[in-house]
Write a structure and sequence with these properties.
Rossmann fold, elongated, alpha/beta, 10 helices, 9 strands, Helicase, Ruva Protein, domain 3
């Protein structure tokens, strides 16, 4: 077995039950094209190839490419060596799916890149740090900037927990599957996402403070003006950012 590289956040998962659960969550059909990120030794790739019509695997570690090519010779697999954050998604079919066991450090940037892409995946099934999966799927009361930024584009659902002991080497925490399904139509009509996230980031800039104070500081306006803005949107200014729903954020955005 090839030794995993700590610098790339590599943790090999070879447990058959866990791998099968990931693929099952993706509801893969023979007509599907699947983008796998970081195939590593190809353990998950093997199961994906058994279900999908075509698998495209992007691997940063060039030392793994040759062994992957030999292992899956003459199968419906396209291998690409490189950084997924720089990968051109435009050539993929419009209804492609992403299925991957991704390095923890990559999660936030990858989700942003895929969510905001001109050709985004129809569905993502990702194995991530358990705490991060719970943050992505959070509901009002426990929301975060990550939850808002993903849920604006995708419905989220928590899948199975994969204990750290099933990886080689074991990470310090357990992992969990997060299932993301693209909204069939945008939640909000003609949304300026740059302005929307500017507002949301301002709200989360000081999580412990009430909304009137965090927005005042984040937007660089007075508390009085922030409160008028929030009240005009029909939102309680005594709430904190983590308590707001996407619809409430949108109402404040429209008032702004």
């Amino acid at each position: 077995m090839t030794n995993p590289k700590k610098s790339l956040g590599q943790h090999w998962l070879t447990d058959e039950q866990a791998l099968e659960a990931i693929v099952e969550a993706a509801e893969i059909k023979r007509t599907d094209t699947v983008l796998e990120i970081g195939p590593g030794l190809g353990s998950l790739t093997h199961y994906l190839l058994g279900q999908a019509g075509h698998v495209i695997a992007v691997e940063l570690d060039e030392t793994l490419i040759d062994s992957l090519r030999q292992k899956f010779a003459d199968q419906n697999l396209t291998l690409r060596q490189g950084d997924i954050l720089k990968f051109d998604l435009s050539d993929l079919p419009s209804a492609y799916k992403v299925v991957a066991n991704i390095p923890y450090y990559l999660t936030s940037n990858l989700l942003q890149m895929l969510s905001e892409a001109a050709n985004p995946p129809k569905m993502m099934v990702l194995l991530v740090q358990e705490e991060v999966a719970e943050r992505i799927a959070a509901r009002p009361g426990a929301m975060s900037l990550l939850a808002v930024s993903v849920q604006l584009y995708y419905e989220s659902e928590l899948g199975v927990v994969v204990p750290a002991k099933l990886f080689e080497p074991p990470p310090k925490v357990d992992s969990q599957v997060i299932v993301l399904r693209r909204h069939q139509k945008p939640l909000f009509h003609e949304l300026n996402t740059k302005k929307f996230f500017w507002l949301v980031k301002a709200g989360f800039s000081e999580r412990r403070k009430k909304l009137r104070s965090s927005l005042a500081g984040g937007l660089g306006i007075s508390r009085e003006k922030a409160e008028k803005l929030i009240v005009a949107a029909g939102v309680d200014a005594n709430l904190r950012a983590q308590q707001l729903s996407l619809e409430q954020w949108h109402r404040i955005y429209e008032a702004l």
